[in-house]
Protein: Elongation of fatty acids protein
Amino acid sequence: MDNAETDPCVSINSDGIAYREFSCDYPQLEPFYLNFEKKYDPIPVLRWMSEHPMIPVAAVVIYGFLIVWGQHVMKKRPAWNWRNAMAVWNLSLSIFSWIGMFRTAPQLASNLYHLPLRDNLCEDPRETYGSGSSGLWVQLFILSKFPELVDTFFIVIHKKPLIFLHWYHHITVLLYCWHSYVTKSPPGIFFVVMNYSVHATMYGYYFLMAMKLRPKWFNPMIITTFQISQMVVGVVVTMLGFYYYTTDPTCKIERENNTAAFVMYGSYLFLFLQFFVGRYFKPKAQKQKSV
Structure:
C-alpha cells in the first residue's frame, strides 16, 4: 500500500494486490497507451467468470450442435458466397491480434528481463501481468475465444471440409483459456503472446485469400510452421511448469491446469505435424508414385 502511494507507476486492483503498470516504466511508449488501459482493473470480470463456470461448457455444446445442424442443412443446398463478409471478419481478427500482440509481448519481454524464469512461471499474474494495460489485453484474449468460433460458420456455409483439428482446436482452446484465467495460471502470458502473434499473421493471410490477393511469394507453409513452433514452445513451457511445481512448494502453478495445457499442446503438436505432412508432402509423394 505504501509503495502504491509513493510510486505513480504502482496501482492497487480490486483484490487489494499492487501491480506495476508496464507503460509507466517506458516513457517512449506511454503516450501510445490510453488512460483506460493503464488503470484497467480486471478483477470484476474475473470474479464474474469464476462465478459462471458453465458458460464455456454451454458455448462448446451449442457450438457442436450448430456444426452438426449446419452441415445437415447445407447438405442439399448450394454453398453460400459470403467471401466479402469472411474477408472483413478475418481482417478484424488480424487487426485485433496485432494490437493484442503489441500490448502483451513487450510486457512479457520486460518480465523475462527483470524477473527470473521461476517468477515468470510461478508468481500470481495479477501482480506480474494480469492488471493494467497488459491485463486488459490478456482478458480480451480469453474472451475472444468465443467470437472466434464464428470461423467455423464460414466453413460450413461455404461447404468446405471441416477437419477434426479445426473444431477440436476451437473447443479445447476456449475451455482451457477460461479455466486458465479463472485459476490465475502464472504462465498464461506466454500462451497469450504466442497465440496473438500467430493469429495476427494467420488471419491476415486468410483475409488476403478471401480477397484473392495472396502474394505469390508467400508460402502457406509459413503459417503452419508458426503454428507448430507455438505448440513446441507450449510443450516446453508446461514441462518447465511441472519442474517448478514439483521442486518449489511456493510456486502458484496448479497441477490440473498445467496437465491440461500439456495434453492440449501435445495433441496440437501431433495434429499440426500430421496436417503439415499431409498437406505439403504427401500429395507430391503420391504424384511421383503414380508417374
Remarks:
- Residues 78 and 159 are 8 Å apart (CA to CA).
- Strands lie at 10-12, 18-20.
- The chain has a mean pLDDT of 93.
- The radius of gyration is 21 Å.
